[in-house]
Amino acid sequence: MERALARVDLGALRGNCERLRAELGGARLCAVVKANAYGHGAVDCARAASAGGATALAVATAGEAAELAGAGVAGMRGGDPGDVDLLTLGALTDDEVDVALGAGSAVGVWTEGFRQLLATRARALGGPARVHVKHDSGMGRLGSLDGEEVVALAAAVAADPDLELAGVWTHFATADEPDEDDGYFFAQLERFEPVAAAVRAAHPGVTVHAANSAAVFRSARSHLDMARCGIAIYGLDPFQDDPAARGLAPVLSLVSHVAAVKRFGAGQSAGYGRRWRAPRDTWVGVVPLGYGDGVRRALSNDCDVLVGGRRRPVVGTISMDNLTVDLGPDTDVEPGAEAVLIGRQGGEEIRAEELAARLGTINYEVTTALLPRVPRVPAGDP
After folding, report:
1. Which residues have a Cβ under 8 Å from the Cβ of 114 and sit 6 or more positions away?
2. Burial class (CB in 10 A: 0-12, 13-18, 19+), 20
3. Which of 84, 134, 226, 368 is least surrounded by CB atoms within 10 angstroms?
4. Which residues contact 56 (CB under 8 A, 6 or more apart)?
5. Model confidence over 99-149: pLDDT tens digits?
6. 34 is an active site residue
7. Does the annotation mark 262 as catalytic?
8. Strand bridging mode 348-350 / 338-345
9. 3-state SS of the chain?
10. What is the average pLDDT value for the chain, to the nearest integer?
11. Distances in Å between the alpha carbon of 165 and those of 79, 87, 131?
């Protein structure tokens, strides 16, 4: 028995990709597998996404690109990348450029200085580097705000024999806020569309992309040539609602077990600081999972665990390696019983969206926060 594990349903992930492809119509699906696939396990998830019809994979760092290339999922300079493109979206240092290019990844460019560096390094490595030029249409992070500068940079890339212009892209700041009152999502799209059109007219065949998971469901106008979907491929809702309402199936279940069952008298406390004291005689279960695994301490006295098909409240302070649950004044739970922190058991379910709401954050953070000592165990047929 594992102390704790994260079960990753690769069949569900493949199905989510198929669902997104249906929503996209003719646009390509790029599966975003950065940050260890949002905590789900990058290599296995990348393979399942490809099986579900994703024709591109996106990461944030050069190291992430190298991991996928090393596993034979995509990329590999000098090798056969198959039908799956690899794109590194984040900022790269000089040393990281060689790692990303060595992995066979396309990279994002938004300054002339970096374009020149990239050309130099690509020449030294013996092949042209594929480039996606980024327009900052309003996110306020990486990319050029000046549309004319973006068009000129794309032309410089296309004219350079050591570079290949593969795409032009942007990123939405408020796609997941459908109730926004200032129309910022569509304002960004309207700023990007003429820039993309100018690049496409000058360089036919370039891939234009802007949509994330939320944008895919919010507006077909944003789909363009390709959508970069992250949160939705993991069956998590981009609007923090019920993913089933959008035909998505959660991929990850976080499972542990009851390591001990103890009788508590009224007033007896559990955990650091004695922040919970039994209001009556009761049974308490100890589950060997804590913030050292990524279960946030802020959930102390404020979440449930499924044991025996029922919700059991977490009581006391969550520690690094353990948490405690109130099993009630009478219980048939015995040591070894399964404990589910995220997922289904019997007719009950605890979703990442529920934990995110309790924490005042988003579902992205809940799964990405799971730490390496929790093994990711693939389940289902990818």
Report:
1. none
2. buried
3. 368
4. 28, 29, 30, 31, 84, 85, 86, 87, 226
5. 999 999 999 999 999 999 999 999 999 989 999 999 999 999 999 999 999
6. yes
7. no
8. antiparallel
9. CCCCEEEEEHHHHHHHHHHHHHHHCCCEEEEECHHHHHHCCHHHHHHHHHHCCCCEEEECCHHHHHHHHHCCCCCCCCCCCCCCEEEECCCCCHHHHHHHHHCCCEEEECCHHHHHHHHHHHHHHCCCEEEEEEECCCCCCCCECCHHHHHHHHHHHHHCCCEEEEEEECCCCCCCCCCCCCCHHHHHHHHHHHHHHHHHHHCCCCEEECCCHHHHHHCHHHCCCEEEECHHHHCCCCCCCCHHHHCCCCCEEEEEECCEEEEECCCCECCHHHCCECCCCEEEEEECCCCCCCCCHHHCCCCEEEECCEEEEEECCCCCCCEEEEEECCCCCCCCCEEEEEEEECCEEECHHHHHHHHCCCHHHHHHCCCCCCCEEEECCC
10. 95
11. 20, 13, 5
> Which domains are present in the chain?
10-235 (3.20.20.10), 252-350 (2.40.37.10)
What whole-number distance in Å separates Cα of residue 137 and Cα of residue 142? 10
Query: What is the length of the chain?
Result: 382
Residue 53 — φ and ψ, nearest 5°?
110, 0
**Six-digit token string for 230:** 């992250």
Rg for the chain, CA atoms, rounded: 23
Angle at 242 (CA atoms; ends 347, 220), nearest 5 degrees: 145
How far is residue 183's CA from residue 174's CA, in Å, rounded to a whole number? 9
- Cβ(367)–Cβ(350) below 8 Å: no
Q: How far is CA 81 from CA 39, 103, 272, 361, in A?
A: 24, 10, 52, 37
Taking the C-alpha atoms of residue 227 and residue 54, their distance in angstroms, rounded to an integer, is 10
Cα torsion 367, 370, 374, 377 to 10°: value is 20
Mean per-residue pLDDT, 229-242:
98
Burial class (CB in 10 A: 0-12, 13-18, 19+), 97: buried
The catalytic position among 34, 38, 134, 291 is 34
Is the confidence at residue 380, as pLDDT, over 80?
no
Longest dimension (CA), the chain: 78
Candidate list 234, 272, 291, 364, residue with the active-site label: 272
